[in-house]
Each structure stands twice: as C-alpha cells, then as structure tokens.
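Supplementary notes for students who missed Thursday's class. We covered one full example, reproduced here. Read the sequence, then the structure, then the short commentary at the end.
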Amino acid sequence: MSSRKVAGPEIETLIQLLAKLPGLGPRSAKRATLHLIQKKDQLFAPLTKAMEVALDEVKVCSICGNIDTSDPCTTCSDPRRDDSTIVVVEDVSDLWALERVSAVNARYHVLGGTLSPLDEVTPEDLNIARLVERVRQGAVTEVILAVNATVEGQTTAHYVTDQLAGLDVKISRLAHGVPVGGELDYLDEGTLAQALKARTPF
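Structure (token representation):
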C-alpha cells in the first residue's frame, strides 16, 4: 500500500530534492524539510539566499580543479604555499579534508574521480593531463598521491605514476596502515597486511 502525501507538491518536491543529497534518505529529507520550514526566518531564508549566491558565483579552478568563488581559487592564489609540492586528490572533498587538518602547505590537484572501467571512467574523463602539464613546467619537485586505498584509487595512482615517468619529480603516497587510536582486533585484513609491509623503525 502506497503512503499518502502529507503536504502540497512544492514541499514534496523539496523533500525529493533533499533526499538526493549524500547521507539523506526519504525520512531524513522529510525531517530536514520540516526543520527548515519551522525555522523559516532563521534558517530557510538565509539558506535559500546563500544557495542562490553559490549558484551564480561558484567556479571550478582552472589550475587545480578546486571549487571556489574565484578562479584561480583561494588555495592557488595563496603566495605562502609551497610551489614545489603538489598533493593529488580524487575529489574536492578530499582537498577540504586535508586542509581541515592543516597537515601540508602545498599546492593541490583534483583529479575529479578515479579510473573505473565498470563505470566507463577513462583517463580522458579525469584531470590527469593538466597535472602532467603542471609538473612539466618545472617548479614541482614532489607529487604526493593522496588517493583512497581502494582498487580504483590504486589503479589511478599507478596510471598517474606512469604518466609522470621520465619527469624529474619525486612521487610519494600517503602511508596506509593502522590509524591513530586503532585497535588491531577491529582492523580488516587488508589494513593489517599493509601496516606490516609499511612498518617503520621504532
């Protein structure tokens, strides 16, 4: 038996759109919609205005592929960044995650995904050629491959490494293994095996 609609088409449309966001299903979208409507002046109106501005102003950086309201983006325009190092990430969310911990003061390069034959994602679909061009310009001495430890991520890392072969640049990757605070009993076999292979002196 199908469920009855509890609101007009405008609200139902809002629920359906919110349900398409990552991490939100139909029930969560209904709760979010109800909360927005109940906080119309404090939340809904400012959110609507912010989204309209973002729709008009947000751009993709022509240098690194980051998303910002300026091109070049804030990261690429920062003169304090180390031009000799480029951190390669799969998506903008990964760039933001690394920036959140302030672990590196380098430049970035967003690939826009990973190679995936099953999903028909080819090298031409990713921002790889631009990365090679940036390295060829000569200022870069190290490329850090900060891709996910998935089959697709590692396949992409190997492909990027092959594309940079012959260029005078050091290629490194993020360490994989036991996370800080991690307990061995809760780790999967792949993580444990990688941790043993990447062991370091104590």
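Commentary. The longest strand covers residues 82-89. Residues 40-57 form the longest helix (18 residues). If anything here is unclear, bring it to office hours.
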